[in-house]
Structures are given as structure tokens and as C-alpha cells.
């Protein structure tokens, strides 16, 4: 193998026919201002070439695709090894992916539980070992011969199921007798239940003890254990006989309740296993329930004029309309007054119905629409179950079949997620909580922070006879835990849903997974691994990267963080500027070599010992601030936090210290809930003083742009509509009869019919995932041929989308609206971005700034807004950060407030007020270490942030 | 009268057959079923025996032997098959009826004997459900008979349905009495309630069947059903009393004929009908389903 990846004559995008060498087995950083060509080099050259190579080695069938894959525009590339990319993106919404499943730790822990978990009696907590079926049978055979043994097993009913149904199902499974709290009942009689019993046992069968069980006896025991999900109750009805068996009960189960546990398999704990998942929520841990205020469209309107969403009452659906009218008349509340003004009992009737009472159907004088013939007619008695009840009932009934999209939308609109009532969020059937290791159930273990979990694993005592089976499992668990802890994720827990992780955290979990896979000889491309990490944690990432290299891999990162750059083995600096002004390598080599290179831009930053701290004047005014009282969400320790308005406030602290919990979960969601959507439930806190001072809130994070391949920056900032109008009004358009703007949207009439406007086709190849090939019909142009015949100022619509923002600025000079919007995008350093670049290919940092540009483009006139930004410097070169701060300052000058969650020292130094969270992560964090100006922070020896700023 | 010699010959055949199995360790139990157990035998009767073997049994499930010149029909089940059968069976099953009249010849497994005894427990819930099912069947055929007679003026078809109404009523009577239904169920029910069958069934055989008679029989059927409604529909009426409507009502019945007829309550004026909107499958339109509630 060569010692280098050699790339010769790279010309993709803005690259200027460059030659690059990247050493194998080392950590190389590609740096440079935004838009200089870092990603192009890493992804469009190295990654693309790696993919194509890989496919070329595979079968003929796959080759067909590979010949259509876009070939990177280069002379040659040599010495490439298989390439793996670890990009940053928010994980998709999926309640089934957790840190446990993602890291595969769940798999190993399940195995551990099945090997050394012990059972506990659901009724008295007594502990006893889990046996295998064959062992239990051997022991049963040792009981005195002729003893009659009755086999029972415990069953559990879902909250939403009715007892009648539950019993009928047991009966249908062939059982005739049950015991409810010890009282025997026959399923062939009526069984009345007034209060939820503590235990329900099914009487399964009887066997008689003999020296050698026959197959039917064994089958009986096995079936009871299966039906009891590992739990069986053994009853010896004859007291005399029972006494002789005492030692059997003492040794293997609960002597008082006769409970035994056998045959626990790893799948027993998997919520992705149908047999183990909670029946009610299918293993998601959440159920949906309708929420009253959500069905109200406008509480200032009357029922008559559309207070409710039309799904529930509208003039066109005569029956619903008349029924609502009749309800109001019958129960004496107003159909015409604003919903707001209705008394509580009226709202209760509307939401929860008449509780089986009926009332006559009436007609208001001014309503003439006829009722359909087949339904209740005027004067007939009707019933109303209430809107909320109806939604909930229909939702329950729809379970177990595939929902159509409109149904999903319907339920999403009117229902909220709730913790499942049956499994209390454990996602598992109830029996699972009675298997423990050192007093922890599998679910409880999943709630532990990883560093505690690490200690827990170390404390497990391994029985000698199980060593052989156990040690490999424990080793796997240990090494996986170590990787996660070492990379700074020690504060998360296995039950944490993957889709609640930030892009950076998610990337780090996947990085840890790579280390654990022990693969070697790969080339990794990693996008900004330090995002979201406090400066003090950077060391952890560096260690991990070094470990990957040491395993024999080549690591290429795209980074702006100076800490990482300083520690790189090799540095490639792209530049000098963005777009057409970039695409060159301005310096490369070891860090020392680059520092000496006077063409290098980064050299000045690497050299700078500039630690000057501006002495900013800032005084905290109580009546120009808000105050969060008793914040308790996640790890927050019941704290009060004040946030000054009309200033730049920076929320700092190491990852997991509670920044997002405070800034997003509480502050943002409280505002959003109050101003827009009452379904949003803010994180736990008592109240927020001064909330009324904020007119609206806007949260800018990496996910706000959306990642649809069908959306573009132009649509996102709201200029594409205008551009299509311009095209629809051209002479060409009128000539060809294409004078409607829908022709200029590739998602609509104008799109190429073969690829539906995508420009490429998706193919799926087994093992390789999705591949994209250029659409042969439009050759990637996305539009149908005729539409491309329409020109404006010499360019057709596709060519306009190919313009970058800097070019578009002059192209649309004479259109004030478009020009104005574009100028903000350029101001934030995104001039190199194309108008038509699919948003799913935009990096997190770019998305952030695009979002910011859009907002600033709107601000004129709006005041008293609160902008909350989650790590806006992601993806920004030190030079770009200055621009960002300028943009933020302009928001504040216009009378708004900005709260940023940030680690970047440049931003921290520029902030008016800093709130530093900590001191540690998870349960060791959740407090405000210090709050005040930069000086206050630096002066505080407990503040990790302050100390970090001093040392850099 | 039964031929005494024949019975003796059958007895011999039974004894010699049983002797061969009783000592076999793998054969756990034997039942005598069919005519010899509970009825008269004649020259064309056969001798039916059910044997239960342990799980190692490999042979066929039925054999026809000739023993002392008697046709012996052997049915053989393994213990698991038999226990599964005992778990799932119900009064509508042919074997259930046969077993209820069988004679236990021998049994070496005490748990099996208990399981066997237990299937004949007639619970109150089962009793009421069977009454409802018999009743609903009778209503179904009554509707058919009435339509043919009163609307289509087709007496032949009307007469055809009358014995079926009677059968439904017989099922009800037998269930009310907690008896296991037999094959000749009308005869069985007549012992319990002779009067009703005299009026709706016997007349078909002993009188000239005129239009007046059919009319009278149908009226009597209706009258009988009406009078029994409150008792038979007790579970439903009491649920309505407590909950107002049947929206959340579920009464799981065994798969049988036409299920429970709720509309009858409306026909006899006990319940009133109203409608409630429902969705069907995932069609976007709303449909209206019939609901019932008590007439106040
Ligand atoms: N959605 C969540 N579910 C469970 N725990 C969470 C969730 N979000 C954050 N946490 C936990 O709360 C603590 C604070 O996290 P967070 O507010 O994200 O800190 P920061 O923003 O400073 O990184 C951590 O222990 C974290 O694991
Ligand atoms: Mg965070
Ligand atoms: Zn116990
Ligand atoms: Zn659940
Ligand atoms: Zn196409």
C-alpha cells in the first residue's frame, strides 16, 4: 500500500485543478473558510471516488449502477482505501432507536440479564434464581411421588382493555379457571370486577409427580412458563403434601406465593421483539391522547362561526352542525357567543360528551341544508360522545392496522404523546420488571448515566461456573461503555432516545461504534467532531481520533477548532476565499510547516497569543430581564436564572451540564407553548417572570432548515416564488403558453416526468444502501425540456438555480425584494452557496446561517423578539465567526434579544452576559456556576469555561 | 325392546377389547361412547370406544375391529390432543355431547379424570349466552317464515322454516335447564317445556296444515319469544340499564350461526334505535351505525 492517498488534477466544483497528498495512518485536518472547497475535496472527491471503487469491485449487476455514478472530475487518485463517512445530522425521528440500541450495548446487557438476572416475586419481592426449564423439571420430579401439582401463571391486563374482553380472550385460549387475588373464579360464569386486583392467575393444568415425567407433563410445565412469560406459579392443593415440598419452594422460588421463574431469553428484554413489547404502545413507550385545546381553532369565535376545527363542526356537514346546535340548545349554552365565554360545563359537554344522555335534534331557523336521509332526522333523539372521547376511541380502534397519511395527520394535529399508561414508559411487558441484577431491572439500568453504569458493571459478581459464558459479554460491555465515556458522553443513559441527541452527540456515538468495531485500513471522513463540545472536552475527541489512527486507519476531519488543528498530524488549508475565489490549497504540511507559511490564513490564528479581553460595559437591569424560577427539567437542580434582554447572552457549560434543558426545554418551549401551541409542554419549572416582555420567540438550530431534497435555499428564504413569477411573465413564457408559475417549479408541473423533478433516480442495492444515478431523461436538469426554453435575461430557470448567491445578487439587482433577501445571505458569508442546492446537502452550520439570514431579512420593524440559537458557530471558520457576531449584533440593535448556547470562545468573549452551567455533566451538573460579564466568569475559579478562556 | 342376547354379545366384545388395552402402560384411559353407553342397541349398532394414549402413540386415529362378531369402532387420541380438545370444546360440539353420555371404562391419570369432569360444568355466563344464541336463531328463522308467509304468500317455505324455529327454541329451553344438548333436541326440550312444542311443532304433524294454522303457529312463536325476551336478554338489558348504550359492550360468543340478534329488542319495543358515527376500515367518509338504548 502506498503511504499516501494521492489525488491529481481535482476540478470538482470550485477546485482549481489541484493536487493533494494525504498521509495514511495519520490524522489530517482540512481547514479553510466556509465555501473554500473543504467539503468538495473530502466528499465529492475522496468519498465519491472511494464509493465508486468499492462498487467496481462488486458484481456485474452492481457495476451497471456504478457506471452511472457520478465520476469525480479528477485525473487520477491513488492509494485509496475504503472510505467511511461520519457526517453530522440530526437522527431521524424514531422512538425505537436509543443509545442502547445504537451502541449495541442493549444487546449485550440483555444477554447479561438472561445469564445472571434473578427473579423476584411480583407480590413480595423475594429474590430467587432463574432456572432453566429442564432443571426445574428435574427438581419437580424429585418431589414425593403421586403429589398433585397445579400449574398457574400470572397475567396482566392492559390499561385500555376491558375485563370482559380480557377474560373472553383467556377463555378463547382454552382456559377455564382463574384466581383473582387468591379467589377462584370460573370463566364460564360472569365475573364482576370493581377494583383492579393485585394479581390474576390463570389455572393452566394439573400434573401428578412421578419419577420420570412423560411428554405431556413436560409440555404442561413448558406451556405454563411460556404463557407466563417465564413466570409460573406452582400450587400443591393438599396441605399435607405441600408441607413435604417446602424445601423445593425455599430453594427455587417464593415459598409464600409459589412463584418460580424459568427460561429467560435475551429477547425477553427487547422492546423491538413483538413478544416482549408492551401491547399497549407496541414498545414505543408512548401513547397518544387527544388534547382539548387542540380541537379549538379560534376561541374568539363562536361554535357557529368556527370555534372548532371543521373536522368537528362545520356548516357543510349538516348532521354534525345540527347536533352541536342541538347540544347547545338542550343544555342551555350559547351557540353564538365566543367559545372563550362559554361556561366550563359547556366545554366539558363539547369535549367529553353527554355521558350517554340523549337530546332531540333541532334546526336553527337560518339553516336550510338537508340532512342525509339515512341518518337521524329532526326531532329524533341523538347522543354525543364528545370530541375528545371520539378521537381517542377512533384512535384505539385504528390500532393494529396501517394508518393512511391523512389519518396520521389528523391524529398528529389533535393528539399529544403521553407516557404509556400500561408500561409506564418501560416499553416492555410487565413481567420484565421482576428480573434483576443487583436490585436493578433492565429498564432501571437503562436510566443510569453511563459512568454509573460503568461502575455497576464493574461491581457485578460473576459466578465461577458462568465465567466462560459471561466474560466475553462483560468485556464487550466494558469496551463499548469506555468508548462512549471517553468521548465525553458519560452523562447520557441507554434509554435516551437517539432522536433527542444533538447532531454532534449522535456523531460521537457513531464514532465510538467505529472504534468498537475494530476495523482497520479504512479512511474516515469526519465532519467537525468537536461541535457541541466544551473546550475542555476537546481532548477526549483528540484521543479518540488518535485511537482510530492507531488501529491502522486514516482519519480526515473537517475542523475549525484550533485545539484540534494544533494537534493534527497533517494540515490542508483551503482558500483563499469562498466560491470562485477559493478552491486552492494555500498551505499544507505539518502544523509547524503551515505556521511558517506566510500564505496561510490560519497561521495567524494558530500563532496568536491574543488573549486580550475587551472591557465591556454592561449593567444588569432587573426590569429589562426575565427570570426562570425553580427550573427542574432533566438534571437542573431547582435553580433560578435571570436573563437580561436586548443583549447578547451566552449560555455556556460542558456538554450535558443542562444548557439545552434550560434554554430549549424550558425557556423556548414555555414561550412557544404560550404563544403558539399549547400542546408543547415546557420542561419542569415553576414560572417565568417577565415572559410578557417577549413578543415572539424564534429558535435557530441545525434542524430548522429541514432536510428535504425537494427544498432549496431559494425556497427557504422565500425568493423562489418571486423568481417563478418573473419567469411566468416573460415573453417566452407567453409565447409557449407556459405563463403560470407552477411550470417553473420542479416539484410541480415543470418537473421532468421521469424523475419527478429530482434530477436523479434512487436505486436500492442490497448491502450498499441507496445509490443515486443521474436521470437519463433530463440529464439531471430536473425540468422538462419545454420549460428550459423559457429565458429571462439570457438564463433559463435551471441556470438561475445554478447561480450562487453572490452572482444572484447582481443578476437580480433590479428586483428590490429579491435583492434585499439575497444580500443578507451574502452578508453571512454564504455567497458561494447555489440558489438551487438541495437543502439536505447543506451542512449544519450553513443551515444555521441560512436560517439566521432569513430571520434578519424579516426583522425590519419587529421588536422584542427573542432569538435562541443552539451553537450557531458550527461549521464556521474563525473569520466567518466575526461576520456572524456582526449579524447577531444587528438583531440586538433592532431591539431584540439573543440567547446563544455556545462553546466558541470568540462568541463568549463578545457576549454581554454569560451564564455558565455546570460544574459537571448529568447529575453532577444542572447548576449555574457563575453568571455575569466575561470578567466575572474569568474571575471565578470554579468555572471551567472561565479557566478555559484564560488558558487559550 | 332391546335384544338381550345382543347386549350380552356386545358386553363380551367390550370386555375382551378393553382387556387388551387396560394393561398396556401407554394406554391411559378408555371411554365407552355411543348407543351402548346410553341407548338401545340393535343389530346395526356398532360399539364405539375412545382410547387415550400417552404421547408416544404412533398408530392411526381410528380402527375398525371385529370382536365376537361385533363391529368395534376404536377412536384413539393422545393425551395432549385430548387435553387440548377438552380445553377448547363447548356444548355445540358433537363429541362434547357424546362424551357427556359416555361411560368411563378405566383411567390411570387422575388429572385427566378431573379435567374431563370439569368440562361439564355449566357456568352461568355460558348458560345465558347459549340461551341468547338459541333465541337469536329462532328469531332469524321466524323472520324468514313470516316474510314467506305474510309477504311472499309462500306457505311451503314458511312451513319449512317452522321446525328450525322450534329447534332454536329447544336449544334455549335446554340451555335454560343447564342440560347438554342432544341430537334429538326437540324431544329433549319437550320434556322441559311440553306446551310450547305442542303448539308450534306437533301441530305440523298431527293436524291439517292450513293457512290459519301457520298463522297461529307464527303468532305463538312470536308470543313465546316476546314473553321470554326479558329473561333471555338479561345481560344486555342490565348493561343498557347501567351504561345507557351498547357502545363498549362486548359479549364474546363461540362461532355460531347468526350471533346475537340485538334488533329484536327494538322489535318488541324494549329498546330504541339511534345512530352514532363510525369510520369503516380507513375510508374517509363517516358512516352511521345503529346503537340501542332502553325505551324509557
Ligand atoms: N430528552 C432528554 N431525555 C433525557 N435526558 C435528557 C434529555 N435531554 C437532556 N437530558 C439530560 O439532561 C442533562 C443536561 O443535558 P443538556 O440540557 O442537553 O445539556 P447541554 O445542553 O449543556 O449539553 C444531561 O444529563 C442529559 O443527558
Ligand atoms: Mg445540548
Ligand atoms: Zn412472594
Ligand atoms: Zn407501553
Ligand atoms: Zn429527470
From TrEMBL, chain A:
<keyword id="KW-0862">Zinc</keyword>
<keyword id="KW-0963">Cytoplasm</keyword>
<dbReference type="GO" id="GO:0016887">
    <property type="term" value="F:ATP hydrolysis activity"/>
</dbReference>
<dbReference type="InterPro" id="IPR004602">
    <property type="entry name" value="UvrA"/>
</dbReference>
<keyword id="KW-0067">ATP-binding</keyword>
<feature type="domain" description="ABC transporter">
    <location>
        <begin position="620"/>
        <end position="950"/>
    </location>
</feature>
<keyword id="KW-0267">Excision nuclease</keyword>
<dbReference type="Pfam" id="PF17760">
    <property type="entry name" value="UvrA_inter"/>
</dbReference>
<keyword id="KW-0547">Nucleotide-binding</keyword>
<keyword id="KW-0479">Metal-binding</keyword>
<feature type="domain" description="ABC transporter">
    <location>
        <begin position="344"/>
        <end position="607"/>
    </location>
</feature>
<dbReference type="GO" id="GO:0009380">
    <property type="term" value="C:excinuclease repair complex"/>
</dbReference>
<dbReference type="InterPro" id="IPR041552">
    <property type="entry name" value="UvrA_DNA-bd"/>
</dbReference>
<dbReference type="InterPro" id="IPR003439">
    <property type="entry name" value="ABC_transporter-like_ATP-bd"/>
</dbReference>
<dbReference type="GO" id="GO:0005524">
    <property type="term" value="F:ATP binding"/>
</dbReference>
<dbReference type="InterPro" id="IPR027417">
    <property type="entry name" value="P-loop_NTPase"/>
</dbReference>
<dbReference type="GO" id="GO:0005737">
    <property type="term" value="C:cytoplasm"/>
</dbReference>
<keyword id="KW-0677">Repeat</keyword>
<dbReference type="GO" id="GO:0004518">
    <property type="term" value="F:nuclease activity"/>
</dbReference>
<dbReference type="GO" id="GO:0008270">
    <property type="term" value="F:zinc ion binding"/>
</dbReference>
<dbReference type="GO" id="GO:0006289">
    <property type="term" value="P:nucleotide-excision repair"/>
</dbReference>
<dbReference type="GO" id="GO:0003677">
    <property type="term" value="F:DNA binding"/>
</dbReference>
UniProtKB/TrEMBL annotation, chain B:
<dbReference type="InterPro" id="IPR043519">
    <property type="entry name" value="NT_sf"/>
</dbReference>
<protein>
    <recommendedName>
        <fullName>Nucleotidyltransferase domain-containing protein</fullName>
    </recommendedName>
</protein>
Amino acid at each position: 500500500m502506498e503511504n499516501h492517498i494521492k489525488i491529481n488534477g481535482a476540478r470538482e466544483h470550485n477546485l482549481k485543478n489541484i493536487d493533494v497528498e494525504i498521509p495514511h495512518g495519520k490524522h489530517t485536518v482540512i481547514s479553510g473558510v466556509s465555501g473554500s472547497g473543504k467539503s468538495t475535496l473530502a466528499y465529492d472527491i475522496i468519498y465519491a471516488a472511494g464509493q465508486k471503487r468499492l462498487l467496481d469491485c462488486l458484481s456485474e449487476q452492481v457495476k451497471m449502477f456504478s457506471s452511472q455514478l457520478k465520476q469525480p472530475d479528477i485525473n487520477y487518485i491513488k492509494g485509496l482505501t475504503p472510505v467511511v463517512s461520519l457526517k453530522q445530522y440530526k437522527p431521524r425521528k424514531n422512538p425505537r432507536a436509543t443509545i442502547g440500541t445504537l451502541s449495541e450495548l442493549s444487546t449485550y446487557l440483555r444477554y447479561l440479564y438472561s445469564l445472571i438476572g434473578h427473579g423476584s416475586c411480583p407480590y413480595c419481592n423475594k429474590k430467587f434464581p432463574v432456572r432453566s426449564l429442564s432443571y426445574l423439571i428435574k427438581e419437580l420430579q424429585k418431589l414425593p411421588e403421586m403429589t398433585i401439582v397445579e400449574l398457574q401463571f400470572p397475567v396482566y391486563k392492559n390499561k385500555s382493555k376491558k375485563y370482559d374482553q380480557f377474560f373472553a380472550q383467556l377463555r378463547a385460549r382454552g382456559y377455564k379457571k382463574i384466581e383473582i387475588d387468591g379467589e377462584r373464579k370460573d370463566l364460564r360464569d360472569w365475573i364482576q370486577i370493581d377494583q383492579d386486583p393485585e394479581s390474576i392467575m390463570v389455572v393452566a393444568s394439573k400434573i401428578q409427580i412421578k419419577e420420570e415425567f412423560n411428554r405431556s407433563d413436560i409440555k404442561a410445565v413448558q406451556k405454563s412458563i411460556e404463557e407466563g412469560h417465564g413466570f409460573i406459579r406452582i400450587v400443591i392443593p393438599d396441605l399435607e403434601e405441600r408441607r413435604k415440598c417446602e424445601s423445593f419452594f425455599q430453594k427455587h422460588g417464593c415459598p409464600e406465593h409459589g412463584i418460580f421463574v424459568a427460561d429467560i431469553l435475551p429477547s425477553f428484554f427487547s422492546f423491538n421483539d413483538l413478544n416482549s413489547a408492551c401491547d399497549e404502545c407496541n414498545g414505543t413507550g408512548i401513547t397518544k391522547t387527544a388534547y382539548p385545546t387542540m380541537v379549538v381553532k379560534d376561541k374568539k369565535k363562536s361554535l357557529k362561526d368556527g370555534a372548532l376545527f371543521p373536522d368537528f363542526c362545520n356548516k357543510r356537514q349538516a348532521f354534525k352542525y345540527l347536533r352541536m346546535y342541538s347540544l347547545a340548545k338542550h343544555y342551555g349554552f350559547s351557540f353564538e357567543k365566543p367559545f372563550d365565554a362559554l361556561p366550563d360545563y359547556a366545554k366539558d359537554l363539547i369535549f367529553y360528551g353527554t355521558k350517554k344522555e340523549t337530546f332531540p335534534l333541532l334546526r336553527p331557523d337560518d339553516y336550510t341544508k338537508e340532512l342525509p336521509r339515512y341518518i337521524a332526522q329532526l326531532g329524533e333523539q341523538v347522543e354525543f360522545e364528545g370530541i375528545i372521547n371520539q378521537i381517542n376511541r377512533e384512535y384505539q380502534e385504528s390500532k393494529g392496522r396501517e394508518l393512511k397519511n391523512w389519518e396520521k395527520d389528523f391524529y398528529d394535529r389533535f393528539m399529544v404523546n403521553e407516557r404509556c399508561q400500561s408500561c409506564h414508559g418501560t416499553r416492555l411487558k410487565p413481567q420484565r420488571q421482576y428480573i434483576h441484577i443487583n436490585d436493578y431491572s433492565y429498564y432501571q439500568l437503562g436510566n443510569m448515566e453511563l459512568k454509573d453504569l460503568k461502575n455497576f458493571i464493574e461491581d457485578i459478581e460473576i459466578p465461577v461456573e458462568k465465567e466462560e459464558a459471561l466474560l466475553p459479554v462483560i468485556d464487550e460491555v466494558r469496551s463499548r461503555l469506555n468508548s462512549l465515556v471517553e468521548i465525553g458522553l458519560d452523562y447520557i443513559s441507554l434509554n435516551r432516545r437517539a432522536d433527542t441527541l444533538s447532531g454532534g452527540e449522535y456523531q460521537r456515538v457513531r464514532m465510538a461504534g467505529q472504534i468498537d468495531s475494530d476495523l482497520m485500513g479504512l479512511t474516515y471522513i469526519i465532519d467537525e467532531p468537536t461541535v457541541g463540545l466544551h473546550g475542555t472536552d476537546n481532548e477526549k475527541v483528540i484521543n479518540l481520533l488518535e485511537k482510530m489512527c492507531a488501529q491502522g486507519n486514516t482519519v480526515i476531519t473537517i475542523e475549525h477548532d484550533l485545539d484540534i488543528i494544533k494537534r493534527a498530524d497533517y494540515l490542508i488549508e483551503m482558500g483563499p476565499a469562498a466560491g470562485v475565489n477559493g478552491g486552492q490549497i494555500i498551505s499544507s504540511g505539518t502544523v509547524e510547516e503551515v505556521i511558517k507559511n506566510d500564505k496561510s490564513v490560519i497561521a495567524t490564528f494558530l500563532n496568536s497569543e491574543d488573549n486580550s479581553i475587551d472591557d465591556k460595559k454592561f449593567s444588569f437591569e432587573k426590569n429589562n430581564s426575565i427570570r426562570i424560577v425553580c427550573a427542574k427539567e432533566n438534571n437542573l437542580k431547582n435553580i433560578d436564572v435571570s436573563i437580561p434582554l436586548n443583549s447578547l447572552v451566552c449560555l455556556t457549560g460542558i456538554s450535558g451540564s443542562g444548557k439545552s434543558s434550560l434554554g430549549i426545554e424550558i425557556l423556548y418551549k414555555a414561550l412557544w407553548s404560550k404563544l403558539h401551541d399549547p400542546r408543547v409542554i415546557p420542561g419542569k419549572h415553576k414560572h417565568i417572570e417577565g415572559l410578557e416582555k417577549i413578543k415572539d420567540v424564534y429558535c435557530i438550530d441545525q434542524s430548522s432548515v429541514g432536510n428535504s431534497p425537494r427544498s432549496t435555499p431559494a425556497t427557504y428564504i422565500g425568493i423562489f416564488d418571486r423568481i417563478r413569477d418573473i419567469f411566468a411573465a416573460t415573453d417566452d413564457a407567453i409565447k409557449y403558453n407556459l405563463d403560470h408559475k407552477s411550470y417553473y417549479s420542479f416539484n410541480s408541473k415543470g418537473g421532468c416526468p421521469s424523475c419527478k423533478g429530482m434530477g436523479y433516480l434512487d436505486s436500492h442495492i442490497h448491502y450498499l444502501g441507496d445509490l443515486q444515478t443521474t436521470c437519463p431523461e433530463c440529464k439531471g436538469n430536473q425540468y422538462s425540456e419545454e420549460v428550459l426554453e423559457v429565458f429571462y435575461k439570457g438564463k433559463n430557470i435551471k441556470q438561475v438555480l445554478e447561480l450562487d448567491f453572490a452572482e444572484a445578487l447582481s443578476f437580480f439587482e433590479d428586483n428590490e425584494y429579491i435583492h434585499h433577501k439575497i444580500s443578507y445571505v451574502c452578508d453571512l458569508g454564504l455567497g458561494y452557496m447555489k440558489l438551487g442546492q438541495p437543502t439536505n446537502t447543506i451542512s449544519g452550520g450553513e443551515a444555521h446561517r441560512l436560517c439566521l439570514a432569513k430571520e434578519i431579512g424579516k426583522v425590519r420593524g419587529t421588536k422584542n423578539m427573542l432569538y435562541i440559537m443552539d451553537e450557531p458557530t458550527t461549521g464556521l471558520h474563525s473569520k466567518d465567526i466575526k461576520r456572524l457576531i456582526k449579524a447577531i449584533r444587528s438583531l440586538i440593535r433592532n431591539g431584540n434579544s439573543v440567547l446563544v448556547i455556545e462553546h466558541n470562545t470568540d462568541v463568549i468573549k463578545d457576549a454581554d452576559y454569560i451564564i455558565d452551567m455546570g460544574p459537571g455533566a448529568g447529575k453532577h451538573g444542572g447548576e449555574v456556576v457563575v453568571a455575569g460579564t466575561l470578567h466575572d466568569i474569568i474571575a471565578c475559579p470554579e468555572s471551567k469555561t472561565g479557566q478555559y478562556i484564560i488558558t487559550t | 325392546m332391546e335384544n338381550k342376547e345382543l347386549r350380552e354379545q356386545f358386553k363380551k366384545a367390550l370386555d375382551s377389547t378393553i382387556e387388551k388395552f387396560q394393561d398396556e402402560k401407554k394406554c391411559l384411559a378408555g371411554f365407552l361412547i355411543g348407543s351402548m353407553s346410553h341407548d338401545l342397541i340393535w343389530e346395526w349398532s356398532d360399539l364405539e370406544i375412545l382410547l387415550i394414549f400417552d404421547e408416544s402413540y404412533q398408530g392411526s386415529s381410528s380402527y375398525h375391529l371385529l370382536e365376537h362378531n361385533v363391529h368395534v369402532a376404536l377412536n384413539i387420541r393422545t393425551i395432549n390432543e385430548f387435553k387440548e380438545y377438552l380445553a377448547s370444546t363447548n356444548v355445540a360440539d358433537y363429541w362434547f355431547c357424546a362424551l357427556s353420555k359416555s361411560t368411563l371404562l378405566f383411567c390411570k391419570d387422575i388429572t385427566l379424570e378431573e379435567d374431563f369432569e370439569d368440562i361439564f360444568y355449566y357456568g352461568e355466563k355460558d348458560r345465558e349466552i347459549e340461551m341468547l344464541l338459541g333465541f337469536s336463531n329462532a328469531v332469524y328463522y321466524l323472520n324468514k317464515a313470516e316474510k314467506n308467509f305474510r309477504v311472499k304468500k309462500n306457505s311451503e317455505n314458511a312451513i319449512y322454516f317452522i321446525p328450525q324455529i322450534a329447534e332454536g327454541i329447544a336449544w334455549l329451553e335446554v340451555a335454560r335447564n343447564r342440560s347438554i344438548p342432544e341430537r334429538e333436541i326437540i324431544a329433549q326440550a319437550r320434556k322441559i317445556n311440553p306446551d310450547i312444542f305442542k303448539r308450534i311443532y306437533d301441530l305440523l304433524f298431527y293436524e291439517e296444515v292450513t293457512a290459519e294454522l301457520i298463522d297461529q303457529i307464527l303468532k305463538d312463536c312470536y308470543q313465546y319469544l316476546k314473553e321470554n325476551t326479558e329473561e333471555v336478554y338479561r345481560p344486555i338489558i342490565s348493561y343498557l340499564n347501567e351504561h345507557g348504550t351498547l357502545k363498549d359492550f362486548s359479549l364474546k360468543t363461540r362461532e355460531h350461526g347468526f350471533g346475537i340478534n340485538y334488533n329484536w329488542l327494538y322489535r318488541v319495543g324494549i329498546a330504541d334505535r339511534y345512530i352514532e358515527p363510525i369510520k369503516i376500515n380507513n375510508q374517509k367518509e363517516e358512516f352511521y351505525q345503529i346503537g340501542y338504548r332502553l325505551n324509557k
